[in-house]
């Protein structure tokens, strides 16, 4: 514990007080946060995710761009009766990553860092760049080649330095980690830093509040690195542990068929996730061939009685078009969860409440 902040803990048993230079365990594994019991005292006058400050591990330092409290709407006025869509692209930088980025930059400020480094396929980097700008911190964002031009423009527009890495998403992460080791900058990693998950937890808290203090039966969530799966799980698990809901909703994680390492491990009944050689997919935001927290996503899906499913490029395109025809304009990755949710879901009862996010804006990338 440092300044009231929970320690980083690793599955190997080691733990560390939060420090700018600590981004993974000495064993190489990713870090989590020692659990903190949830206090459900939303501040109804606060229209940002800081309304849940009582349930968050970081103190509210006043850093906000108005993130959180995204709309929850019906998919259609007629069909798909139980399906609700959470409009995450209404977030300040156009994706749900704002929920985690506001925490990482708040933590960077608490730890006295002047400079942050992040790597991303686009949206997380954009979010970190925006919040760093808001907080007056310098940011350097590493992106893989092929990242959408609009996302690059947005990152640069917020004053961040952009380094385009010729190579894969994994090469990009390695380049960012090398810069962190070399400069001692704070690694604002949505993959490694568990404070990111604590912010994403608010996705669940908002659904709980909007559904009148209940949990939906199923959450359908896209999974690349799994931050939304892990964050949503942590939120409902905290509500369960506080006695506010009976159980965590069934979590159905969705991957693009052309890059589906977690789905392959799930189908094979394995606990580890083997890297795949990805094919080209329009779902750039979830094209993660070697997800560091893949085993955790598997655990969550199995514990909640969910599944890992895949969607084809054609299904993503059809879902994208169906959303657009109803006035909803998402980036291709933002159509992935809906592509799965509009099919019969494994184990779902007809008419049960299902929530799927529209997680990224179509103004950033299109088909
Ligand atoms: C629009 C969008 N949806 C979903 C995801 C998936 O998030 P994760 O990689 O944390 O599973 C991302 C990640 O970049 C994204 O940009
Ligand atoms: Zn460890």
Describe the structure concisely for a colleague.
The chain has helices at about 100-110, 125-135, 150-155, 170-185, 195-200, 200-210, 225-240, 260-265, 295-305, 315-325, 335-340, and strands at about 10, 15, 30-35, 70-75, 85, 115-120, 140-145, 160-165, 185, 220, 250-255, 305-310, 355. The protein is of the alpha/beta class and about 375 residues long.
Structure in words:
The chain is 32% helix and 14% strand. The protein is of the alpha/beta class and 367 residues long. The protein has two domains: 72-92 and 197-357, Rossmann fold; 97-194, Rossmann fold (3-Layer(aba) Sandwich), CATH 3.40.50. The strands form three sheets. It has a six-stranded mixed sheet with strand order 4-5-13-10-11-12. β10, α7 and β11 (250-256) form a beta-alpha-beta unit. α1 packs across α2 (123-135), α1 (98-110) packs across α5 and α5 (194-200) crosses α7. The radius of gyration is 19 Å and the shape is globular. It starts with 7 loop residues before the first strand and ends in a 10-residue tail after the last strand. Bound molecules: pyridoxal-5'-phosphate and zinc ion. Pyridoxal-5'-phosphate binds at residues 95, 121, 123-124, 222-228, 285-286, 288, 331, 333-334, 359-360. The site of pyridoxal-5'-phosphate has 19 residues, from α2 and α7.
Task: Map the helices and strands.
Blueprint: E1 8-9, E2 15-16, E3 32-33, E4 72-74, E5 83-86, H1 98-110, E6 115-119, H2 123-135, E7 138-144, H3 149-157, E8 161-165, H4 169-183, E9 186-187, H5 194-200, H6 202-210, E10 218-222, H7 227-241, E11 250-256, H8 261-267, H9 294-303, E12 307-311, H10 313-325, H11 336-341, E13 354-357
The structure holds pyridoxal-5'-phosphate (PLP) and zinc ion (ZN).
The site of pyridoxal-5'-phosphate has 19 residues, from helix 2 and helix 7.
